[in-house]
Amino acid sequence: MLVASVCHIDLETLMTLPLREIADTGIRVTPIALGCWPIAGVTSLNVTEANSLATLQAAVDSGINFLDSAYCYGLHGESDLLIARALGHRRDELVIATKGGIHWENGIQVKDGRSETLLRQCDESLTRLNTDRIDLFYLHAPDPKTPLAESAAAMKQLLDAGKIRSVGLSNASREQLAEFHAVCPLAAYQPHYNMLQREIEASQLPWCVEHGVSVMIYWPLMKGLLAGKLPRDFHFDPKDGRRKYPMFQGDEWQKNQDFLDALRPIALEAETTVAQVVLNWTIQRAGITVALCGAKRPEQIQDNAAAMTWSLAPDQIARIDQAIAARGPVVSRAAV
Ligand SMILES: NC(=O)c1ccc[n+]([C@@H]2O[C@H](COP(=O)([O-])OP(=O)(O)OC[C@H]3O[C@@H](n4cnc5c(N)ncnc54)[C@H](OP(=O)(O)O)[C@@H]3O)[C@@H](O)[C@H]2O)c1
Q1: Which ligand 1 atom is nearest residue 190's CA?
Q2: Which uninterrupted H or E stretch holds 34?
Q3: Fewest C-beta atoms under 10 Å: which of 102, 190, 251, 317?
Q4: CB of 281 closer than 6 A to ligand 1?
Q5: Distance 293 CA to ligand 1 centre (A)
Q6: CB 139 within 8 A of CB 160
Q7: Is residue 73 annotated as part of the catalytic site, yes or no?
Q8: Active-site hit among 71, 73, 138, 189
C-alpha cells in the first residue's frame, strides 16, 4: 500500500522517519537531504532570500535533518550564512555537511586543496555557520596541483582537532578514494548519480560498500530534469546554467522526455509525483545512503521529503528498471 502525500507529512510519520548512519560515526541522517546549491543563487534563476530561508525551514519541518553546503555555494558563502540565519536556533537537530577546496576567482571556480587553504576555509565555514563543529567536511574535489595526500592530511588534522566530526571526498575516482582513505579515514563519498547517470556502479560504489563508506549522491533529479515538470518545448533562459549539460540538449533532451513519459504512469498509479518516484527509487538502491536534493522553493523540498515516507513496490521498480534500460546510455559530464 503506497502512502504518498505530495506535501504534508503528519507528525506521527515525522517521528518514525528512517535514519541512516554515516559510515560508523554514530551520526544519523535522513535519506533525503537538502542540497543548498540552488539557494545560493549562483546558477539557479529567480532565487530570492525569502524563498531560500523558507526552503531551509520547510526542509527541517518536513523531517529532513541533513543539509549539504559548501564553501563555494555563493560567491561569499551565502549558503552557509543562510543556514545559520534560518536554522541556527535548531543547530542541535541538524547534521551539517559542508566542503572546502573550491573558491571563486573572478566568477570562475578554482580548486585549491593545499593544507593551509583547507584549514582556513574550515575556520571560515565554522564562523559563517555560527557553530563550533562541522558534522561532515568534504574535500570538494581533488586539486590536480596539490598532492591528494596533503589534502587528506589536512582533513585528518581538522578531525583530530575536533573541528569536524567526519570526513568526506567528492568528485573522485576509485583510485583517489583509496589514496585519500590511506591517509585519512573517509566516512562519505559524494559523486553525481541518478536513474540515468550511474557510472559509479561499476567502480566507486562497490569500493565504498566494501570499505563502509557512505555514499551521498548529488543530482538525483538531474537539476530538475527528472522532476518531470519541464515541458518538452521548454525554452531555457540564456542565463540558465543547465543549458551547458548534454542531457538538456537536442536529441538527448527528447530521449529524456520519452523516458519521463514512461515514468508518469507509475507516478499516477502511486498517487505521487514523478520527482518522488525518482527519489524513492534512488534511496532504495543498494549502497546509496542519501540523495542530496536541491530546491529553491519550500514546495519543492516538501515534495522531495515526502519521498522518504513510502516505498515503490518491487513490480514498479522492475518497470522503472526496464524504462532505464530502454532509454540507453546518456551523454554525461561532471559538475567540476
Ligand atoms: N559535490 C559536488 O560537486 C556537487 C555538485 C552539484 C551538486 N551538489 C550538491 O547536490 C545537491 C543537488 O544538486 P542540484 O541542486 O544541482 O540538483 P538536483 O537536486 O538534481 O535538482 C535541483 C533542482 O530541481 C528542481 N526541483 C527540485 N525539486 C523539485 C520538485 N519536487 N519538483 C520540481 N522541480 C524540482 C529545482 O530546479 P528549478 O526550480 O530551477 O526547476 C531545483 O533547483 C546540490 O544542491 C548540492 O548540495 C554537489
Answers
A1: 1
A2: strand 32-35
A3: 251
A4: no
A5: 5
A6: no
A7: yes
A8: 73
Spatial distance between the Cα atoms of 281 and 321, rounded to a whole number of angstroms: 10
Query: What contacts 107, CB < 8 A, 6 or more positions away?
Result: none
Ligand 1 binding pocket includes 37 (Cβ within 6 Å):
yes
Answer yes or no: are the C-beta atoms of 289 and 24 closer than 8 Å: no
Per the CB < 8 A criterion, the answer to whether 243 and 275 are in contact is no
Name the grid cell of 36: 543548498
What fold does the segment set 11-327 form as a domain?
Answer: TIM Barrel (3.20.20)
Atom of ligand 1 nearest to the CA of 141: 3
Element (H, E) at 102: strand 102-105
Q: Is any atom of ligand 1 closer than 6 Å to the C-beta of 242? A: no
CA distance 179 to 244: 32
Q: Is 195 near ligand 1, meaning CB less than 6 Å away?
A: no
Q: Which of 293, 302, 304, 333 to mutate to test the pocket of ligand 1 (most atoms within 8 A of CB)?
A: 293
Give residue 162 CA to ligand 1 midpoint distance, Å.
30
Name the residue with cell 549502497: 287
**For a pLDDT cut of 90, what percent of the chain falls above it?**
88
Rounded to two decimals, what is the model's pTM? 0.96
pLDDT of residue 182: 98
CA–CA dist 177, 194 (Å, integer) = 20
**Residue among 287, 216, 297 nearest 33 (CA):** 216
* Cα angle, residue 122 at apex, residues 295 and 136 outer, rounded to 5°: 55
Q: Which residue of 200, 221, 273 sits with most ligand 1 atoms within 8 Å of its CB, as the best mutation to test the pocket?
A: 221
**Count of H helices and E strands in the chain?**
12, 12
**Distance, CA of 87 to CA of 64 (rounded, Å):** 12
Q: How is the chain split into domains, by residue range?
A: 11-327
**Model pLDDT for residues 95-136, shown as the tens digit of each residue:** 999 999 999 999 999 999 999 999 999 999 999 999 999 999
For the Cβ of 272 lying below 6 angstroms from any atom of ligand 1, the answer is no
What is the residue with the minimal CA distance to atom 43 of ligand 1? Answer: 295
Q: Identify the bridge partners of residue 188 per DSSP, sorted by sequence position.
A: 168, 214
